[in-house]
Specification:
The chain is an alpha+beta fold. The chain has one domain. Helices cover about 30% and strands about 30% of the residues. It has helices at about 5-25, 35-40, 130-140, and strands spanning about 50-55, 65-75, 75-80, 90-95, 100-105, 115-120, 125. A seven-stranded antiparallel β-sheet has the order 6-5-4-3-2-1-7. Residues about 5-20 and about 20-45 have low confidence and may be disordered.
């Protein structure tokens, strides 16, 4: 049975919130350890405040690829999980070493979802687009005051 249009949007957002963080967390499990060590140079984590973009591809804006965009201030982060040309899910929380420990906020879902994402399992993307900045601005506005 296909749900009505309004329910389809809600279903998509719930599925995105539930499945996207899982894909980020499991990316590293599919990669052999030797390959991970070889590529560790382009998978460095954040050391200072600023805006960062990580993805399952080293290239920005690749269709069907997962990305995590965030701004770091001290050990706090605000950002978005997204797939290009799709919806995005805002989050806020902390960065602990190379791991994001955040709460993802999905519209129309009452409870934020706790997510832990390991940045070492993703490629650091050097190019941050105007659209990335637009998403980040929207997430800053939606973030709860901490």
């Amino acid at each position: 049975m296909i749900p009505p249009a309004s329910n389809r949007q809600l279903w998509f957002r719930v599925a995105l919130a539930a499945l996207f963080p899982i894909s980020l967390i499991t990316v590293g499990l599919r990669e052999p350890a030797a390959q991970a060590q070889e590529q560790s140079g382009d998978r460095s984590t954040t050391a200072s405040d600023g805006v960062y973009l990580y993805g399952t591809s080293p290239q920005p804006n690749q269709l069907a690829r997962d990305y995590v965009l965030f701004e770091r201030h001290n050990d706090e982060v605000i950002g978005a999980f997204y797939v290009p040309q799709s919806e995005f899910t805002c989050f806020s929380g902390d960065i602990e070493g190379s791991q994001l420990a955040v709460e993802a906020v999905v519209p129309e879902v009452s409870e934020p979802r706790e997510v832990k994402a390991e940045l070492n399992n993703l490629h650091k993307v050097r190019t941050i687009s105007a659209n990335d900045h637009r998403m980040l601005d929207m997430c800053r506005e939606a973030a709860p005051v901490r």
